[in-house]
Each structure stands twice: as structure tokens, then as C-alpha cells.
Write a structure and sequence with these properties.
Length: about 475
């Protein structure tokens, strides 16, 4: 990295952050930092040249260490829940920020701070990394910048969501496909993702005669990836690893599958190695919802009894936090408290926030139409037979977020402010329904600040090459 990149960035920060000759960072003026300075750091971490990105990302990490905003694993909190030390009267929201990540993350913290929310996860899936153009180091840096901007203190639980093995690629080249997921996990851990959900549920083979054989590839590959992750944990950190037994959108999970998967997983895991903190199941949802011909969403029926039953087995038999629900952000408002009542450990939320951005009255019509025209041209071959244009646009508009990332970040402040306000209201509603208020002390107790310092050299490599993730779930 060009040393001048850091010098130039520090000059732009106007003395709010300083760095000594031996690389020690200090924050002499936090108020000034939280003004335009942190906005500058966030933008350079995303849109700067290679030197500017490296300087901004390193500085954001180190400033977080100074201020007490730090990457953390939710593993200890989850296993404490499995032991009965932590009540099951809240469900942790795991939030995927696809669009306007900095403004969206700011809205999360603005909703979380007055409610004293600490049990909160930011995440991004393998597929989303591709189509939103957000590699792990960028995503973590943006979340960190938003936390500093809004004055948050405490752990940042940042998660790799659906680090998924592609079934077709696994069938023809299993080692290469598992290596691709391993490489992504390694990249994510180095970026500060200390929570990783391994999704090998795509490898379940229901044609096999026994449940164990149906789940074998699922649990064996997950165990191998768990061992890979454990070998790369920072000192003092136990990364939270999640598994999955039911591919979202397929048949509902049951206890027999859960036990077969978990028993096989622990047989496959190296003796004495720490295993999973949670388990994702299928209960009736579909990622992004099911659009009707007019573009509105079909009502979804979730079997909440499955959540309660499998959460109890997960806790009492295997010491995990419980079951995880995917694909929930487009559910009706009255559904969310049901996750708490039925003891869900975690719920994943993504498309609903994307919808707020796209459909907001403040969103410039011209930009939205440009994105839609791009979708209709660039992804025309992905339109399914019988789909209306409204259904096609709804399902595919997520793929306009990466190509138009700069346009969305560059919207006028009054536009972004209006969208932030709507997002903040939605996040606040969800935090209330999921009962995660007053969990900041709990989060800090089970994820205390373990100081991890980095050097500029850790950020000088290029971002990973984008891969084709078109067939992955999101």
C-alpha cells in the first residue's frame, strides 16, 4: 500500500484520529470523528482505490478497538442459552444489508441504541456477496463505520449467512466446491466475521433409504468445514458455527432429521472439537417470499410447532441455542412475536429491507426505472416460463444492487435520510416484537472485548475474485 494513502486519509479526518509512528491509533476528538470524518472513512472503504480502501478499512478496525466496538462471536451466549443460563424469551434478529449498507446499518443502530439491543447479528450470504458487490472486508468495515457514527459500544456480531455448497458443482467436483466455501470462510474470518452459518443442506439426498444416509453428505461436509473454521479462529474466540438440515423452500424439517444430522455430525467431527451453536430448519418459508402475478406476495404459513419442538431438542439434547428461521422478513407483522413464543433462537431477515429501499416514496423514480431496465436486459435469460413482468422484476431486482451501488450511496441526503427513517421504524418494530431490548449487557457479558489489533499489511491484498453464485439460495 502507498503510505501516502493513510497520510492523506488522516489529513481529511481533520485531527479526529491520529496514528503514531509505531502504528498506535488514538481518537482525540470523537465528536468530530462522528461527523463528516466517519462518512469519509466509510466511502473510502467501499469506493476508494486500493490504497484508500486499505487505509480506511484498517483505520476503522483500529478505531473500533479504541472505542470499544469490536468483532465478536455469539457462540458463548448461544451455548449459555442451551445450558439454560440465558432465558429463551427473545429471538435474535440476523439482518442482511443488501442495499445502501451504510445508511441501513445506521438505521439499525439508531433503532437499537434507545432499546439497549445487543443480541443482534449483521450478516451477508455467499450469494449476496456476489450480486450486491460486498466482499466481507467491505461489509464489516461499513457496519463498523455505522456503529461509530451512531455511538454504539459493544460487540459486533457479523455473520457469514448461507455459506452454501452448490449441489450441482459438488456432484461434479466436490473437492473444488468445498474449497470455494472454505476459501470464503477464511476470507470472512480475516475480515471479522466470527459467526458463520454453513449450509450443506443442499446435499441432502431424500432418495436414500434411511434418514442417516439422506443426511450423510450434509453432516460430513459440515463437520469438515467446521474443523477448517476452528483451525483459523483468533486467539480467545470460539466462532459461532451454525448448521442446516432443511433447504429453505423445501419440505418441513422434523425431529428424526435433526437427530440423524446432529448425531452424524458429532461422529464426523474431530474428537473433543467444539461443534454447532444453532441449527437452521425449514418450517414453510421461501427466501424473498412468493410473488403473485401482480407482484404482491402470497401469504405464507409457518409451522411454529416445528420451531418449538426442534428448538427444545436442540437445547436439551445437543446444548445449542435452538432452531433458526430463514426467509422471514416478508412475513405479516403479527407473525414476528410468534418466533419468541415458540422459542426460536434466531430469525433471518433480508428482502423486506430491500423492499423498503426500492419502494420508498423518496426513491427517485428515474433511478428505480434504470435499475429495472438493467434487470430486464442483463438477466432476461433468467425469466421463468409463465412469469409476469412484475414477478420477474420482484424476484430479480436484488441483482441490480451491486451494479448500482454507487448510485444508491450517492443519493441526496434528504432521500437517504427519509429511507433511513423508514428502515429505523421497521428495525425498531422488529426489535420490539423479537424482545431483544435490554440485551446489551447480556451480549457484553458473553462476548467481552478481546482486543485484536491488525496492521496495514493485513489490508493490502486485493478483494477476492467474484464467483458465479447464481444458483445459490439467498
Amino acid at each position: 500500500m502507498n503510505p501516502k494513502s493513510l497520510e492523506t486519509l488522516l489529513a481529511e479526518l481533520g485531527g479526529s484520529v491520529t496514528v503514531t509512528g509505531d502504528g498506535k491509533v488514538s481518537v482525540p476528538d470523537e465528536k468530530k470523528l462522528r461527523g463528516a470524518a466517519i462518512d469519509t472513512m466509510a466511502k473510502k472503504a467501499v469506493f476508494g482505490d486500493s490504497g484508500q480502501k486499505a487505509a480506511a478499512r484498517w483505520l476503522l478496525w483500529e478505531v473500533g478497538q479504541v472505542l470499544g466496538v469490536y468483532p465478536a462471536s455469539i457462540h458463548e451466549l448461544y451455548t449459555a442459552r442451551g445450558r439454560g443460563e440465558v432465558p429463551v424469551n427473545f429471538t435474535v434478529p440476523a439482518i442482511n444489508l443488501r442495499a445502501m449498507a451504510y445508511d441501513s446499518a445506521r438505521a439499525v443502530f439508531r433503532a437499537a441504541l434507545p432499546r439497549r439491543v445487543g443480541a443482534l447479528i449483521f450478516e451477508i450470504a455467499r450469494s449476496e456477496i456476489s450480486y450486491t458487490d460486498q466482499r466481507p472486508a467491505e461489509y464489516f468495515s461499513v457496519v463498523m463505520a455505522a456503529a461509530i457514527k451512531e455511538g454504539y459500544r459493544g460487540p459486533l456480531f457479523v455473520q457469514g449467512d448461507h455459506f452454501q455448497v452448490n449441489a450441482k458443482k459438488f456432484k461434479t467436483a466436490p473437492e473444488a466446491e468445498v474449497q470455494a466455501v472454505s476459501d470464503l470462510a477464511d476470507e470472512a474470518i480475516r475480515a471479522g466475521f466470527y459467526n458463520i452459518d454453513i449450509d450443506t443442506s443442499t446435499l441432502v439426498d431424500l432418495s436414500q433409504p434411511t434418514v442417516d444416509e439422506q443426511q450423510r453428505n450434509n453432516y460430513e461436509v459440515c463437520a469438515n468445514l467446521t474443523a477448517f473454521i476452528r483451525e483459523r479462529e483468533p486467539e480467545g474466540i470460539t466462532i459461532s458455527v451454525g448448521g442446516e438440515i432443511g433447504e429453505i423452500g423445501e419440505k418441513n424439517s422434523d425431529e428424526t432429521e435433526l437427530r440423524a444430522y446432529m448425531d452424524g455430525y458429532y461422529r464426523s467431527l474431530p474428537k473433543g472439537m467444539i461443534g454447532l451453536s444453532k441449527i437452521s430448519i425449514q418450517t414453510g418459508t421461501t427466501h424473498g417470499g412468493v410473488p403473485l402475478p401482480d407482484g404482491t406476495l402470497a401469504q405464507v404459513k409457518i409451522d411454529f410447532n416445528v420451531i418449538k419442538e426442534l428448538s427444545r431438542v436442540a437445547r436439551k439434547v445437543y446444548g445449542m441455542a435452538g432452531a433458526v428461521q430463514h426467509g422471514a422478513s416478508t412475513l405479516p407483522d403479527e407473525a414476528f412475536n410468534q418466533f419468541v413464543q415458540n422459542e426460536a433462537a434466531e430469525v433471518h431477515l433480508a428482502t423486506g429491507f430491500q423492499n423498503i429501499v426500492y419502494d420508498h416514496e423518496a426513491m427517485p423514480k428515474e433511478l428505480r426505472e434504470r435499475i429495472y431496465e438493467y434487470i430486464k436486459t442483463a438477466h432476461a435469460n433468467e425469466k421463468k416460463e409463465g412469469q409476469t413482468e412484475e414477478q420477474f422484476i420482484y424476484k430479480m431486482r436484488k441483482k441490480g444492487l451491486g451494479p448500482f451501488k454507487a448510485d444508491l450511496w450517492g443519493l441526496a441526503e434528504d432521500v437517504r435520510g427519509a429511507i433511513r427513517t423508514s428502515l429505523e421504524e421497521k428495525f425498531g418494530f422488529l426489535f420490539d416484537q423479537l424482545n431483544v431490548g435490554n440485551t446489551i449487557e447480556l451480549a457484553i457479558r458473553y462476548a467481552p472485548h478481546i482486543k485484536i489489533h491488525k496492521s496495514l499489511a493485513d489490508y493490502t491484498g486485493k478483494d477476492a475474485v467474484e464467483e458465479d453464485t447464481s444458483e445459490l439460495a439467498d
